[in-house]
Design a protein that fits this description.
alpha/beta; 8-stranded mixed β-sheet; 16% strand
Length: 315
């Protein structure tokens, strides 16, 4: 497992436990009690560590390379997933994956950013940073969901939209704006979950939903801490200070009224137990969709629009 600096004491204990477990069958001694003692100590230390994470540490957890990605969620909670490709204008974008599938017995349109799990797949998926064709593909599928009356599920995990010259030439900002507009226009339910990084317009382009949830250690921000630090302090070395100032944690977002709910992660973060966190996300999505069952299209649309119009108003 990839190591985070603040996790080192826990990882050292886990390595010792693994070493003892490997030795237990090769000696005549019963070392089960010692393994149990170290396991209890490791669990307590893990709980203690994750109960007081700083915003900068939460950024690290949200970016953990072994955190479950879009494809993991698809395999774990969507049946008969059929990927759909292309924006019918320029081409395919592999950073933003989208398609049709069945969720808890109901047909849905599902989309989200895929970062990749190794060097080759990360390059293939452009590290989860979509180009304009990705957001135009998202618009195409949202319009298709509208046509067939299908709920939309979006899973967000991106550092932001791709800022390359080609993307800008093909209208990156317009594509993001139109994607947000499409989210606000369709009359089918939209449930969004920030599963890792929710970076800037690249995230909100598909996260403008009726219900927006965040995993406990995910982040949602207008800019990365490094980007913020380079602008305000003229140095990325102030990223920790920027992370605090940006109020980017799930807890901050809930206090500000920008999300609906926080989904608890397994002890030690989502990267330690994929199955548990995918199950929790699936349960939250199911509950959100059930809350909108029976609502008229007009009411679904009106409630979503009112949700975003109310943000930032003085109360």
């Amino acid at each position: 497992m990839a190591q985070l600096e603040f996790e080192k004491p826990v990882i050292e204990l886990e390595a010792k436990i693994a070493e003892l477990q490997n030795m237990s069958g090769d000696t005549g001694f019963n070392i089960g009690e010692e393994i149990d003692r170290l396991s209890s100590k490791s669990r307590k230390l893990l709980i203690q560590t994750y109960s007081k994470l700083t915003p900068a540490q939460k950024v690290q957890v949200a970016r953990h390379p072994e955190r479950p990605h879009f494809q993991d969620y698809i395999k774990g909670m969507i049946e008969d997933f059929t990927p759909l490709a292309g924006d019918r204008s320029f081409g395919e974008d592999n950073a933003l994956r989208a398609g049709l599938g069945r969720f808890q017995g109901r047909s849905v349109v599902v989309m989200g950013q895929e970062k990749g799990s190794d060097t080759d797949s990360r390059i293939h998926h452009n590290f989860g940073m979509a180009r304009p064709e990705g957001y135009r593909k998202a618009q195409r599928l949202m319009n298709m969901a509208q046509q067939f009356g299908l709920p939309i599920v979006t899973l967000i995990d991106t550092a932001g939209a791709y800022p390359g010259v080609g993307a800008e030439e093909r209208g990156q900002s317009e594509a993001i704006a139109k994607s947000i507009e499409t989210c606000l226009r369709v009359t089918v339910p939209i449930v969004s979950v920030i599963i890792g990084e929710g970076g800037s317009g690249g995230a909100i382009a598909i996260a403008t939903g009726n219900k927006v949830h965040m995993l406990e250690h995910s982040i949602y921000s207008v800019i990365s801490p490094e980007g913020c630090a380079s602008i305000l302090w003229r140095s990325a070395e102030y990223a920790k200070e920027a992370a605090t100032a940006l109020k980017l944690t799930a807890q901050d977002m809930q206090k500000l009224g920008l999300i609906d709910d926080i989904i608890a992660e397994p002890i030690g973060g989502a990267h330690r137990n994929h199955e548990a966190v995918i199950s929790s996300v699936a349960l939250t999505i199911e509950q959100s969709l059930k809350e909108m069952d029976g609502m008229s299209p007009d009411k679904i649309l009106a409630e979503r629009r009112q949700k975003y119009l109310a943000m930032g108003r003085n109360r």
